[in-house]
Each structure stands twice: as C-alpha cells, then as structure tokens.
UniProtKB/TrEMBL annotation, chain A:
Binding site for GTP: 16-21, 133-136
Coiled coil regions in record: none
Keywords carried by this UniProt record: Cell membrane, GTP-binding, Hydrolase, Membrane, Nucleotide-binding, Protein biosynthesis
Species of the source: Longicatena caecimuris
Domain called Tr-type G: residue spans: 4-186
Pfam families in alphabetical order: EFG_C (PF00679), GTP_EFTU (PF00009), GTP_EFTU_D2 (PF03144), LepA_C (PF06421)
UniProt protein name: Elongation factor 4
Stored InterPro entries: EF-4, EFG_III/V, EFG_V-like, EFTu-like_2, G_TR_CS, LepA_C_sf, LepA_CTD, LepA_IV
EC number: 3.6.5.n1
Keyword presence, NAD: no
From TrEMBL, chain B:
Subcellular location: Cytoplasm
Matches recorded under Gene3D superfamilies: Aldolase class I
Protein name: Heme chaperone HemW
InterPro entries, per the entry: Aldolase_TIM, Coproporphyrinogen-III_oxidase, Elp3/MiaA/NifB-like_rSAM, HemN_C, HemW-like, rSAM, rSAM_sf
Signal peptide: none
Recorded family membership: Belongs to the anaerobic coproporphyrinogen-III oxidase family. HemW subfamily.
Transmembrane residue ranges: none
Length: 601, 369
C-alpha cells in the first residue's frame, strides 16, 4: 500500500462523550468487525475498563475504508486512555498519528479534559477534526458547541460532522473527513529505521509485544533492532497488524502502525516513547519526546494475611509485566509487617492496581494513604526524596521541605466559581487566573499542591459543583512549604503506616479529623484505646475509643445453637479483615483515614 | 439418651414489634390443622420418656382451651416422669380455664412474657398489659398450685431509659412472687417490625449499664445469676434450659423447632404450609467432633459454673486442655476465663465479653481443619 493511502489517527474526547462508541461504529462501518462479533466497546478489553467505562490500555487497529472517491484507504485507529493519570501515554499515542478526531458532546460542550487532550494533539502537530456527537439528544445544542470550539480552541468547526455514534448517524462523514483532511504519513522508506513505541503488552508465550509506528525506514522479520533509550537489542521474530485480530506480516512499512515481538522478557526494555532503530543501519538520533515515566503517587500495599506476602509479590510482578509504569519495592512497616511501597501514575492507576490484586489474585490488602514524593533538604545540604512519610528524618536534620505543585485548570459554570475558590483555598491553592469561556462558563487556573489533589479533591470538586465542573492538571515542579510529619499513635505507639506530611497551619484541624475518623472506624476493643496525633513528639489532637463493655448474645431461644454460632462466625470473618497493630485490631479502611478532610470533623 | 423436648407453638394473638422468631397470627382453623400435624409428628418421632418438657413459641397460651388440652394430652405418654414441665404464656391470654388445664396435665412451671411494665414501651411493642395485670396473673398462677414462675424482660428497647428499667426491676423483685427471671437484651432484627422501621439499637453504653444494673439488683434480692441472661432463686434454675447449656440432647418438635442428638443438630421446617402437609421436614446438620467440641464450649461457658472437665472428657474422650490449652491459657491471662481442676468458667468480665472469648475457640476450630 502506498503511503499516500494511509491515514493514522486517534479519537480524543472527554470521558463519556462517546469516544469508544464512535470507535465501535467505525469498526462496524469499515466491516473490520462483523456485527455479530461486536461486543459493546470492543477496544476496551479489560473487565475493569468496561465496568468503569474508561480505557486504560491502548490498542491500535488497522481498518480498510473505500472512500466515496472509489479509492481504498488503510486507516490505523489508535485508541488512547481517557484519564489524566495517563497523560504521557496519551501523548505518545498521539505522536504516532497525523490526525485526531475530537469528539465533543453536543449537550455538554468542551470540558477540561477535552482541552487537555487538544493541547496534547496540538503539541504533536496533529490535524484536529472536530466532531459533534450525541446530536440526537433533546438537550443537544450543536451550534453553541461549534461556536465554543471556535472560541475556546480556535478551530474551524463550521464543517464538523454532526453525528450520533450511538445510533450510527453520519459516521461516514467522519471517515470522509479523515480521508480528506488527515495528512498521509511522511517519512522515507529508505532512511534508517525510526519506529516510535507507543504501547506494549506482555504475552506469556512470546514475551513483550511492542506497538509501534514506523516513522522512517521499515521493519522486517529477522532484522536486528535496538531500543535506543534502554539500549536493548533483539531480533524481530514476528511483526504484523491488528484488525483487531492479529495478522502476521513480513514487514511493517514506513507510515504503518503495528506490532512486533522479539522474545523480549522484560517490559522495562520496551518503554513507551522509545525509538526502535536498526542495528546494522542505525538512525543517528531517536525521535524526540521520550520521557522516563515517574510515578506521581505512592502507597504501601500490605497483605492482611502476612502469609500472603509472596503471593502479593507474584501478583505485582505479573501486573508489572503489562504495566511498565507500576513500580514497587519491598518495605517493612512496624505496624503492618512486610509489604511493598508502590508507585503509580495517579490515583486511578492506584485504584485499578489494588482492585486487580484483590479481584484477580484474591489477596486482601491494606493500602496506606497515598503520598506524593516530597523533597527534604537536609542541613548538610543533601536532598532526600521521600515517598513514605514515615521515613522523613528528624526535624533537627531538616532545613526545609518542598512539595510537588500542579497547575490545575478547572472549567465550571460560573455560579460555582465561589465554591471552587473556597475549596482551592482550603486545599492550599494559589490563585493564578480566571478566564471566561463564554457567557456561562469559566476556566479557573490554580496552583495546587499535588498532595492535596491525591486526597479527595476530585470528589469534593464534583460535590460542590453538582458534578458540572471538570478538572485537569499538569505537574509544574516543587515549591517549599511549611511542612511537617504528623504521626498517629494508637494506644501510645506510633503507627508508621498512618504517618502523613501536612502543612503546619492546617495540622490541628487535620489531626483532629483523623483522630475522630479513626475513632469511628476502629471498633471498640477490650481496653480503652487513646488515639493521638503528634507533630515532632508534641500531641496536637486526641480522641479515645472507650473499651468494649459488653459483647455477648443475651438470651435468645436457648436451643437455637446454629444462630449463636453463625453470629460468632460473622464476628470472626470481620476479624479476618482487620490487622493487629500492637494489641489493637485495626480494620482496612482505617489506614485511609489520613484522607479525611478537616471539614468532616 | 434424649430426655428433654422443646415443642414450638407458632401462633400469637398479636405480633410483638421486636420479634423475628418463627410465628404467625393465631387462627382457629389453622391451629386445629396444626394440632393434627403435631399428633402425626409425635407418632412418628416415638419420644423416649422425658425429664423436662418445654412448650414455647410463639405464644402457647394463645391456643384456645380445648386446643391446649389436646396438645397436652398428646404429650401425656412422654411426660409421666417429667421433673420440670414449662409452658410459655402471656398475661392477656392465660385464663383460669387454661391454668386449670395446665395444672391437670402436670405443668409445673410457667414462663410469663412480660417484657416491660412501662405503658409507653408496651404500647410501642404492641403489648397490652399493665403492671397490675401482671401481678394479678402471677397470683392466679400460684392459686392453681403452680409455684415455679419465671418472667421474661427486655432491655435495650428504643426510648427505654435506665430509670425505666430500674423501676421495672424494682417492682418485680420487691412485689412479684416469682422465682426466675430471664433478661433479653434487644437486638433489632432486620425481619422484625422494629427492623423494618429502621429503628437503631440503643447506645451500647446504656445497654451495658442496664445489664450491669440488673445483675447487681437481682442478686441483692436473692436472684442468682446462673447463666448470661438467667437469674433464679436457689433451686429454681431451669432444668430444661440447662440441658441446652450443657450441650445435651433434646428433641425439637413442631414447625420452627430445632433439636439435637449425638451426631448433630436438626431444624424442622419453618414453613407452616409444609409442616401441615408433609410434617417436620427437618434438615439435619451432621457435626464432626471438632464442631461438637466448640458448640459444647460455646453453650457451657454461658453458665456461671462454666464447663465441667469431666463432662467434656466423658463426651469426647479427651481432656479439654489437651485440645484448647493455649486458647484457655491466653483468655485466662486476659482475665476473661478462670480455671480450676474441675471446670473452666468465665469471669465477670469474661461473661460480658463472652463472644470475644468464644471467637478465639472458633479460630482454633478452623486451624485444626
């Protein structure tokens, strides 16, 4: 196939604006997938993705489309994850394309995430084709949305197809738009190989499979290739495309998107954003844009049953085969025993990993509250990166502490601006800017500590705006702040897993909130349990769990033995889901109590 | 050999708001069919002679006199040598005529469902007697030559204050001529009327205060606590209930009853329609030795006297310390269990926290598979 008949594109959209549904319709219309094979939202293959309606892993599919001009085109549709945690992965998939179909909901208009994705696409010089979806909704306002696209993004939306992905309305217009307006791939088939890695999956039989876009040159089976960032070299054993069934080919030509495998054992060798070149005929430089991915959020994961420590390690290793952004290393907590400190791209990523471990590997977990990476500058001039608050050195040794900040963009109907500003103040945000999007909506820009966002910022934002605000953020670096470690003592003992780093000015209310929350979460036991919050050994808040006075089944009909026994079995089940910390039985959810907000007390 | 029987009468004149036991509203025709089914069940069961007989419910006294008489006469073959013959009754329905019948058939103990003497609380649970009614009823029972009288009381009712509870207990111990008191700590059951109304259990501390108050007060007036929720004047501890707590065998008769024998436990159907058409239709749960050991401990530790080492050894051929030594030791260290050469029993605090103690024994049960 000649390069000029190839079109590589992604679909970008805010969550729920219909990206996956449009992808499904395109697959049907190009008859890539028979109607009867169609599962709803075919590209989202993991159960969790389906349940949550989000896309986590990327997929690339090759389609054939015969356009109205009679010519047959090869489309590569590259799916992107739709969540802020995966921004870098999105940017790499976009870098594999020449164009992006921007889906905007005709009733909801542009959202913060839409904008974020548009900017990523513009960064990668993509041709953006706006499409207005859900025009069959009674609340659809296609003209208003078109104007918004023009005003806010500066794109000409006058010819944007008006579609309903759900009902298959005007899908062909989108395909014609792609043929006419997405540029064919450039690149020289005879130049040294440069192929962009934008995704990978692990296959138990063939090792890591890399998904690539050939930018220059070509890849043939038998070629020796090098991954330029990881410096790993392999011989290509197989390559091909997905339609979405796997189809083997002898080569991947310039401009094409496909997969290759080469008995690659470690996913660490196949980093998203890396460039593959030919060992014999190498490119002088990699494609630009490669970045090492660093986890943004860390937490400790511990098995409730300490006998399952090795099972947990196996589970993490297996998940990591498919997820290079998941990091973990063994750690020991005085309170929780042996476990792992795990790094994630964001909160959603963290939730997904935890849920998969519990669901697919049947290990009950205790997760400590998520923490960001703090930079502790010591009096001797050195710097320690702290991803576990309990490891912060003594206060005497610390000169100052810096924490990561993000630039947050919050789009909201104007009536919620006050509530959002109040929330951002409480979350220690610095006001930056406020711009009108149109008569009714604004975009608020704040600098916020990432550590506050990993608390319950998103939930709070949703609740104070009735769900109307949308939110996106990018990391902008570290800023010094008056930070200190807050310890929690149960029964007089510091529980390392409950330590957190807090801003001194917010320490009192937060300490109180955590103590109160723990008092609610930890069931009464046979002795009184004081709960204390302390900073540098000084107690700043306290709550007491009174001792359990009575736990006995008072008379029910004497002969009903099975009923009595069932009650005890239930109590025992509950006990299994608790962790003994010293002499105190602490339930799973208590370890997340550090997340309780000041205003909940 | 099984020498005790529990017979369940599933009818009530009115349904109490706290109750989720198996019961239904009394209906003449239904009660007669039920009696016919009972006759059939007894024919099939071939009970051995009993030393204790307990007729509970429901409300056995809700039966009409001729029905009550039929029921008692059906039991005559098995109750000739009986030592303790109890029937549950409530104040509203226990007429002189029914008392005559009870006396004639050898009933020697009445368990009266009083629950409360507070008009507002009684109203809330749909009970319709007064304190005076209760006293009059107790006197009538004595007049019929039945001098072993127990009453049931409930604490932890919604809107019940500690003061109300104290007042009721005072009235009972100071002016009611009775020998036995059972206390029921209310748990709101999801299938009771309270549960359906979404009523919450009262504050744990108040409930504990009520329990502690009862223990102190009843003992002052000569009622000895012989089990978690049972108190009796000397020699009036219920013989029948001790069969359960010693984990001895007992027959379960009638729709909704459960029983136990050497190998396990059974529950008769709780569906009245099934019972009328197909009899007891019991479901049998066979218990291995380990499960039986646990259940014996679970029941026995409810008694003030605890579990007898001798009884455990006779039942299982093993010393209890051989099986549960480390658990007993741990609970002893915590001050929850007490131990001597003859028995193992719960301390005052162990009594209060008995579920916590028992869960530890359950843990061992599973660890040994």
């Amino acid at each position: 196939m000649e390069q000029k008949y190839i079109r590589n594109f992604s679909i970008i959209a805010h969550i729920d604006h219909g990206k996956s549904t449009l992808a499904d319709r395109i697959l049907e219309l190009t008859e890539t997938v028979e109607q009867r094979e169609m599962k709803e939202q075919l590209l989202d293959t993991m159960d969790l993705e389906r349940e949550r309606g989000i896309t986590i892993k990327l997929n690339a599919v090759q389609l054939q489309y015969t356009a109205l001009n009679g010519k047959t085109y090869i489309f590569h549709l590259i799916d992107t994850p739709g969540h802020v945690d995966f921004t870098y992965e999105v940017s790499r998939s976009l870098a594999a394309c020449e164009g992006a179909v921007l889906v905007v909901d005709a009733a909801q208009g542009i959202e913060a995430q839409t904008l974020a994705n548009v900017y990523l696409a513009l960064d990668n010089d993509l041709e953006i084709l706006p499409v207005i979806n859900k025009i069959d909704l009674p609340s659809a306002q296609p003209d208003v949305v078109k104007k918004e696209i023009e005003d806010v993004i500066g794109l000409d939306a006058s010819c944007a197809p008006l579609i309903s992905a759900k009902n298959g309305l005007h899908i062909r217009d989108v395909l014609e738009d792609i043929v006419a307006n997405v540029p064919a791939p450039k690149g020289d088939p005879n130049a040294p190989l440069q192929a962009l890695v934008f995704d990978s999956v692990y296959d138990a039989y063939r090792g890591v499979i890399a998904f690539v876009r050939v930018k220059e040159g070509r890849i043939r089976v038998g070629d020796k290739v090098r991954f330029m960032a990881s410096d790993a070299e392999y011989e290509v054993l197989e390559c091909g495309v997905r339609t979405p069934k796997e189809v083997k080919k002898d080569s991947l030509e310039c401009g094409e998107v496909g997969w290759l495998c080469a008995s690659i054992k470690s996913i660490q060798d196949v980093r998203v954003g890396d460039t593959i070149t030919n060992v014999e005929y190498p490119a002088s430089a990699p494609l630009h844009g490669y970045r090492e991915m660093n986890p943004m959020v860390y937490c400790g994961l511990y098995p409730i049953d300490s006998a399952k420590y090795n099972d947990l390690r196996d589970a993490l290793e297996k998940l990591q085969l498919n997820d290079a952004s998941l990091q973990f290393e063994a750690e020991t907590s005085q309170a929780l025993g042996f476990g792992f400190r795990c790094g994630f791209l964001g909160l959603l990523h963290m939730d997904v990993v935890q849920e998969r471990i519990e669901r697919e590997y049947h290990i009950d977990l205790i997760a400590t509250a998520p923490s960001v990476v703090y930079h502790a500058y010591l009096t001797d001039g050195s710097m320690l990166a702290i991803d576990n608050p309990s490891l912060l050195p003594d206060v005497q040794k610390i000169d100052h502490i810096e924490e990561p900040f993000v630039k947050a963009s919050i789009m909201t109907p104007k009536e919620y601006v006050g509530a959002i500003m109040e929330l951002c103040q409480r979350k220690r945000g610095n006001y930056t800017d406020m711009v009108y999007i149109d008569d009714t909506r604004m975009n608020l820009i704040y600098e916020l500590p990432l550590g506050e966002i990993v608390y319950d910022f998103f939930d709070k934002l949703k609740s104070c705006t009735k769900g109307y605000a949308s939110f996106d953020y990018e990391l902008i670096g570290y800023q010094p702040n008056k930070l200190a470690k807050m310890d929690i003592l149960l029964n007089g003992e510091v529980v390392d897993a409950l330590s957190s780093i807090v801003h001194r000015e917010f320490a009192y209310p937060r300490g109180r909130a955590i103590c109160e929350k723990l008092k609610k979460l930890i069931p009464k036991q046979q002795f009184e349990i004081p709960i204390q919050a302390a900073i540098n050994g000084k107690i700043i808040a306290r709550a007491d769990i009174k001792s359990l006075r009575k736990n006995v089944l008072a008379k029910c009909y004497g002969g009903d033995i099975s009923r009595k026994k069932k009650l005890l079995e239930k109590q025992k089940e509950g006990k299994k889901r608790m962790k003994a910390v010293g002499s105190v039985e602490v339930p799973q959810e208590a370890f997340m109590a550090v997340l309780s907000m000041d205003d909940e007390s | 050999m099984c020498k005790a029987a529990y017979l369940h009468v599933p009818f009530c004149q009115d349904i109490c708001a706290y109750c989720d036991f198996f019961r239904c509203r009394y209906h003449v025709g239904l009660a007669e069919k039920w009696l016919a089914a009972m006759a059939k069940e007894l024919t099939i069961k071939k009970l051995s002679p009993l030393t204790t007989m307990y007729i509970g419910g429901g409300t056995p006294s809700a039966l009409q006199p001729h029905q009550l008489e039929t029921l008692l006469s059906l039991l005559v073959p098995y109750t000739k040598e009986v030592n303790e013959y109890t029937i549950e009754a409530n104040v509203e329905s226990l007429t002189d005529e029914k008392l005559d019948i009870c006396q004639r058939y050898g009933v020697n103990r009445i368990s009266l469902g009083v629950q409360s003497l507070q008009p507002s609380l009684l109203n809330q649970m749909h009970r319709h007697h007064t304190s005076e009614d209760v006293l009059a009823c107790i006197k009538r029972i004595h007049a019929h030559g039945i001098h072993n009288i127990s009453i049931d009381m409930i604490y932890g009712l919604p809107k019940q204050s500690l003061a109300m509870w104290e007042e009721d207990l005072h009235t009972i111990v100071s002016s009611f001529p009775i020998q036995h008191i059972s206390l029921y700590g209310l748990t709101i059951e999801p299938h009771s009327e309270f549960g359906r109304q979404g009523i919450q259990n009262i504050d744990e501390d108040i409930e504990a205060d009520m329990y502690d108050l009862a223990i102190t007060l009843l003992q002052q007036y000569g009622f000895q606590q012989y089990e978690i929720s049972n108190f009796a004047k000397p020699k009036y501890a219920s013989l029948h209930n001790q069969v359960y707590w010693r984990y001895e065998d007992f027959y379960g008769i009638g729709c909704g009853a459960s029983g136990k024998d050497k190998r396990g436990r059974y529950e008769n159907t709780r569906n009245l329609e099934t019972y009328l058409q197909q009899g007891a239709s019991s479901v049998y749960e066979k218990l291995d030795t380990k499960a039986q050991m646990f259940e014996m401990i679970m029941m026995s530790l409810r008694m003030k006297q605890g579990i007898s080492r001798q009884a455990f050894f006779e039942r299982f051929g093993k010393d209890i310390s051989e099986v549960y030594g480390s658990i007993i030791e741990k609970q002893k260290e915590k001050g929850l269990l007490l131990v001597d050469e003859e028995k193992i029993w719960a301390s005052e605090r162990g009594f209060h926290l008995l579920n916590d103690v028992l869960v530890e024994f359950l843990g061992d049960d599973e660890a040994h598979g």
